[in-house]
């Protein structure tokens, strides 16, 4: 058995243990586990990874690429992803445009980069996430507020400057971003991991080791999927993944000299789960609309919750699968074919539904004609 497959089975086994713990762990308890991962374990891993790389101005390309991907996916969400929904589902379409272009690599991507590739790739992914954070924290918030103001009947519009200021502070106070800033400052002044005091270095390395099992257990415990809209959400996630494969495949084909670890990073990072931050923005808009007594909400909050619930396990399984068969997914042809295949498959339920809606009136009309009924006549009242 090869190393990648053996590693994958080990990861799936730990996820399975987390799934078995679902009955013993309440949903609110998972918030504490998530805080432990995102505030302690993951920052320690990123800090160690950062202090092992050599600082170079060319690294700025990674956050720029991530932000460019977010913007491309935003356009795709409007014109390709949301096409499966009818015109009446405008709230769901706006929800899709908020969630599907966003990325949450912390839980769905970073742990597996550390396991399957190396710490250098994890550090580059953390830098790329800076561009993604700008998109999800600032751009999507402004987009949500713009929709709210356009649809609001109120003449006076509350200022968004205070909210943007608080979002900026939240961006700086987030542990992962604090670690990025401290790590980059240390690198700027020529420090590395060995430059730290022994007790500090050993503490960071000790905390780093708890991340992988903690994340895998969390994924297993957190998988709770609402089956009501599962088919629609699954098709949207498959289409999102297919478009991502296409974009990555074309990029890798344009730059054939890229190293294998870098190609895998470019393939895996955009496949991360949807971010929670757009949901926070939508919830804020929902609260304002409740205060305004608006009956027609801008976003479908329940639909957003279901997308988030499906996105994490979907991305986790997909990323593990990519790493398990990494020798195939470094080939741009395979990436492009996978993208085309997944995109086509995701449209099959939509096409079947369209065919049924087209055929239904024809069959109904033929049936009425056969019975000798006039479907255009008005019903008469009986005496």
TrEMBL record:
Q: Which UniProt keywords apply?
A: Membrane, Transmembrane, Transmembrane helix, Transport
Q: Which domain of life is it from?
A: Bacteria
Keyword check for Plastid: no
Glycoprotein listed as a keyword: no
Residue ranges of the TM segments: 6-23, 35-53, 59-83, 95-118, 130-150, 171-193, 205-225, 237-256, 262-280, 301-323, 329-352
- What is the recorded name of this protein? Permease
Species of provenance: Maribacter polysiphoniae
